[in-house]
Amino acid sequence: MSQFIESIKVEDQEIYLLEFHQKRVNQTFAHFGREGSIDLEKIYDHLDHDEDGLFKLRIGYDLDKKVRTQMIPYAIPEIQDFQLVENNSFDYSFKFEDRKELEKMRIKSKAEEIIIVKNNHITDTSFSNILFLKGKDWFTPKTYLLNGVQRQHLLKQKKIKETEITLQNIKQFSHFQLINAMNDFDDMFIYPIDRIINLPGNEEYLDL
């Protein structure tokens, strides 16, 4: 039985992007031919969470509607370096709990975090979508692995645009940042493009 997760931002007892999380859960049940879904808002309300601060609400569930919850204090990580890692067969269309393949790629790399390249196109890191800066505009790859809730939210607000980002044009961008349910669009965590240790043209490019 497939197991799935939702990681939801809760800050000062307020839950964020619930509409997008619920839509993804509903789509997961529908895709696998199951009627109904689980109600994330009811699950949160039953937790009686009354602490201020930033938390990750981790909801694990299966298609029989069995649910496990954890409320985990959260701090946004600052990452020292990134590496492009090629994997043309990897699929993460749904938010599966099993992350073994992602962890295997990350451990094998020479950097703290990976950026997965699929068929010559930039996709995501091991835990987030990614934005790239060109001039004053932020862009996100059309070739994502998982269409994350924060990504959908920022596109809907027209704060970011979709574009094709490849190994050939990645150096046209000056900076990048990571976004997911826990990491907002945030000027505090912007990385220069050369934080990627093996950009095309560098000696170590894709040398694993």
Low-confidence stretches: none
| Mean pLDDT across every amino acid position | 93
- The outline comes out as globular
The chain-level structural class is alpha+beta
SSE pattern: EEHHEEEHEEEEHEEE
Number of helices: 4
Gyration radius (Cα, Å) is: 18 Å
The largest beta-sheet arranges its strands as: 10-9-8-11-12
Spatial gap, N to C terminus:
33 Å
Tell me the fraction of residues in β-strands, as a range: 25-35%
Structure overview:
The protein is α+β, with helices and mostly antiparallel strands. Helix content is 19%, strand content 31%. The strands form three sheets. The protein has a five-stranded mixed sheet with strand order 10-9-8-11-12. The longest helix is centred in the N-terminal third of the chain and has 14 residues, at 18-31. The chain is globular. The protein starts with a strand and ends in a 16-residue tail after the last strand.
Question: Which key terms come to mind for this protein?
Answer:
12 strands, single chain, alpha+beta, 208 residues
